[in-house]
Write a structure and sequence with these properties.
alpha/beta, Rossmann fold, globular
Length: 247
């Protein structure tokens, strides 16, 4: 029985992915900053641990408690929508601390056990915004695009020691907590000069012919975690897959 550790399991893609791996017979270490035991049905194969990917001590404690794992899924992330001109650099740094440096820190913490074993898989979750950028998410897109380049390089590096590295790129998921979780952070970021553009963007979201369900991403992460080929990119959701055909 294999073990997966997933970050950001309190909602959305992480929660769905934890349930998906459990349903397929894996041991699951579901992590979140503020653990809630009522989110995932109880199972002998489930452990819920506290983990804040921006805190080195939290990472160390979680990995020590988890023990050996076979797959790391870096799903934890925070969203941001607003005009870049109005976005404080402190907020930009906050986005990068979780979406970029948090992912890197988790990889660096897990790589030694994978390298010593000569086996293991890292799955980094980014966004379809890296495939086709759109307005008002410049900082968020930059944080995810950095992980795209990081992962592509890391894949070459770790292949030499028997470790696989994969990218999952979810499309637009209206059923996730992307906007709700970032509501306070986004206050005042749509300033008057950008209001017409914001209306266009929001209207465009409502008119999308295809969107991404949490199950699409869970299945994409499952496929990436079990892939033994040299494939790197796993777009998840009909809209993300369509973007790969037009990019």
């Amino acid at each position: 029985m294999k073990t997966v550790l997933i970050t950001g399991c309190s909602s959305g893609y992480g929660l769905e992915t934890a349930c998906h791996f459990l349903a397929n017979g894996w041991k699951v270490i579901a992590t979140m900053r503020a653990p809630r035991t009522n989110l995932i049905p109880a199972s002998d194969n489930l452990r819920i641990l506290p983990l804040d990917v921006t805190q080195p001590e939290s990472i160390s404690r979680a990995l020590e408690a988890a023990g050996p794992i076979d797959v790391l899924v870096n799903n934890a992330g925070i969203g941001l929508l607003g005009a870049f001109e109005a976005t404080p650099m402190s907020t930009v740094r906050e986005i990068f601390e979780t979406n970029t440096f948090g992912v890197m820190a988790m990889c660096q913490a897990v790589i030694p056990q994978f390298r010593e074993r000569g086996a293991g898989t890292i799955v980094n979750v980014t966004s379809s915004a890296t495939l086709s950028p759109f307005p008002l998410v410049a900082a968020y897109t930059a944080s995810k695009t950095a992980i795209e380049g990081f992962t592509a390089s890391l894949e070459h590096e770790l292949k030499a020691v028997g470790v696989r590295v994969k990218l999952v790129e979810p499309g637009y998921g209206p059923s996730t907590s992307f906007t709700a979780n970032g509501q306070q952070r986004m206050q005042g970021l749509i300033t008057k000069p950008y209001e017409p553009l914001a209306h266009e963007v929001f209207a465009g979201f409502g008119q999308l012919a295809a969107v991404t369900a949490t199950t699409d991403v869970a299945e994409g992460i499952w496929s990436a975690a079990n892939d033994t080929s040299g494939r790197l990119h796993f777009p998840a959701g009909a809209d993300a897959i369509a973007l790969t055909r037009t990019a």
